[in-house]
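queue> holo job accepted (manganese (III) ion)
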Amino acid sequence: MFEQIKLDYAFDALEPYIDTATMETHYGKHHATYTANFNAAAEKAGLADKSVEEILAMVPSMDDPAVKNPIKNNGGGYYNHNLYFGTLSPNPVKEPSGVLLDKIVATFGSVDALKEKLIALAAGQFGSGWAFLSTNKSGELIASSSPNQDNPISEGTGNIPILGIDVWEHAYYLKYKNLRAEYLKNFFEVLDWGKVAENYNKVVG
Ligand code: MN3
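queue> job finished
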């Protein structure tokens, strides 16, 4: 049984950057629905005993759209939102440090340059989708964007996302309306780089 990540903060804790009504709907309704539908799809496909990462990695080799699409969309939605909500915090570590910082500087030049890159990817994602920072087993960092609930795992890249920015309108429209750029700037006010580093270390070891 796949379960939504438990939040260690209240729905109103990310104010004013992410508003209470958005959190209630986004976590309480959208993410809950992805989770329920993913459980049903994984059960139906006989994959319920595998990890979500294992299941998403199988997406490129799934031939039957009746199996593939529910897994890709709901499994991706389940995974991406656990990532998103799991890296937010009302008391975030505001800057990366240690090995992750070294990698960011070596790859992107600076933390600000990485933020600009992620914001540009997120702002440039036409319609619904995500911007991701991912890593591979060698610890290299990759910035990318994906449409819908796709991600680097379901796209078959072999890379594992460690930070995801949701740019579906449901993530920001109640507060920011059409101002996606304003939401993106404020996202980084509640992004916990300590949690991103934990995600990085889980993959790289
Ligand atoms: Mn969302």
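queue> The chain has a mean pLDDT of 97.
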